[in-house]
Write a structure and sequence with these properties.
Blueprint lengths: L1 H19 L2 E7 L13 E4 L4 E5 L9 E5 L2 E3 L5 H6 L2 H8 L3 E8 L5 H5 L12 H15 L4 E13 L2 E4 L9 E2 L18 E3 L2 H16 L5 H6 L2 E12 L5 E10 L13 H25 L11 H5 L9 E8 L6 H23 L5 H20 L1
The protein binds adenosine-5'-diphosphate and magnesium ion.
Length: 382
């Protein structure tokens, strides 16, 4: 019976997937922080069809306004719940045996950790994607408990300077871990990273607090370190059909990426320069992999970074990828904002075109958005 339901779910999932594409890119603009009131934003316009327009703060004129289109844009007032809403179906598909990757991309301070984790010690309203995803996962597995038994286990790792480290090992050792792709054993790509069975959101919260603590070890300030390393929370799900005994495996990677800001080459030296180069290389490798997948290219360059090697099984094929790109509205961030949006557009462009072209062309969409924008501007004048 479970297999029938799972098969139906798969069919529906594939249908939705065909419509929406495997790769989705959402943009999120963070609000100004307390104390930053009345500051001018570089974000000039957000359309309800996924368009965002950025104005160059130092030069006026219409040609200084650049617009970008994604699957959706969340403005500064979007709640954590709203942002999670479209992610929910992906959680269900993990329980149906699919692999899913969710990324937070953006410069340091743009809101990546806010989206993924929420603030420190969040109340449920402030919960980020991580907690909501796990909460849903446990909820749905409970719903299905008469037909399938689910086992959920998590790993949490950090990739720093192209080295993989376990954030949940109890002795806090700094052992460097190997990635073993195709190791079918338990479906684990990093078999030596500790694996923690969990059956409640609270248990996961505790583990994440430990991971957070371990991340700070060996670095002067947690913020510094966390902005220069990628953190990967992996949720492994095994479902066993209670009647037939057949098993299904799915996994969910929740990735808080290193800050994407470019480091001034003339200023960075030594360790700082090395970090910057590693981050740069791994973020471009990720961009290359997603772009190759979106273009259905025959060669996908997974081997170019530890990050893409680690996530290989969950990028491409039937797997689903969701990327939240974060924008800081500050005028000082203009340069980084444009380069963030360009990165995201490269990743999103091909699939956006393919998935939505049967509805209307990009140009028509753009014009439609401009009309809406002008109407809006007119209304404000009146
Ligand atoms: P990052 O992880 O990209 O470096 P953070 O998530 O730490 O950035 O966000 C930087 C600051 O902005 C934090 O103080 C965070 O609480 C705040 N912040 C980010 N996004 C939002 C948001 N959507 N709503 C309210 N505060 C936010
Ligand atoms: Mg962060």
């Amino acid at each position: 019976q479970y297999h029938k339901v799972a098969a139906e779910n798969r069919e529906l999932y594939n249908l939705v997937q065909d419509l929406k594409g495997n790769i989705r890119v959402y943009c999120r603009v963070r609000p100004f922080l307390p104390g930053q009131r009345n500051v001018q934003s570089t974000v000039d316009y957000i359309g309800d069809r996924g368009t965002i327009a950025i104005q160059n703060p130092t030069k006026q004129g219409k040609d200084q306004r650049k617009s970008f289109t994604f699957n959706k844009v969340f403005g500064p007032s979007a709640s954590q719940e709203e942002v999670f809403l479209d992610t929910q179906p992906l959680i269900r598909s993990v329980l149906d045996g699919y692999n899913v990757c969710i990324f937070a991309y953006g410069q340091t301070g743009s809101g990546k950790t806010h989206t993924m984790m929420g603030p420190n010690n969040p109340c449920p309203d402030d919960w980020g994607v991580n907690f909501r995803a796990l909460n849903d996962l446990f909820y749905i597995s409970h719903e299905r408990q008469d037909v399938v038994r689910y086992e959920v286990a998590v790993q949490m790792m950090e990739i720093y300077n192209e080295q993989v480290r376990d954030l949940l090992c109890s002795d806090g050792t700094n052992k460097k871990l190997e990635i073993r792709n195709n190791s079918q054993q338990n479906g684990l790509n990093v078999p030596d990273a500790s694996l923690h069975p969990v059956n409640s959101t609270e248990a996961v919260l505790d583990l994440m607090a430990l991971g957070h603590k371990n991340r700070a070890v060996g670095s002067t300030a947690l913020n510094e370190r966390s902005s220069r390393s990628h953190s990967v929370l992996t949720v492994h799900v095994k479902g066993t059909d209670l009647t037939s005994g057949d098993a299904l495996r799915g996994c969910l990677h929740l990735v808080d990426l290193a800050g994407s800001e470019r480091v001034d080459k003339s200023e960075a030296i030594g360790e700082r320069l090395k970090e910057a180069q590693h981050i740069n290389r791994s973020l471009s490798a990720l961009g290359d992999v997603i772009a190759a997948l979106a273009q259905k290219s025959s060669h996908v360059p997974y081997r170019n970074s530890k990050l893409t090697q680690l996530l290989q099984d969950a990028l491409g094929g039937q797997a689903k990828t969701l990327m939240f790109v974060h924008v800081s509205p500050d005028q000082d961030s203009y340069g980084e904002t444009i380069s963030t949006l360009k990165f995201a557009e490269r990743v999103a462009k091909v699939e956006l075109g393919a998935a939505q072209s049967n509805k209307e062309s990009g140009e028509i969409r753009e014009l439609r958005d401009q009309v809406a924008y002008l109407r809006d501007a007119l209304a404000r004048k009146e």
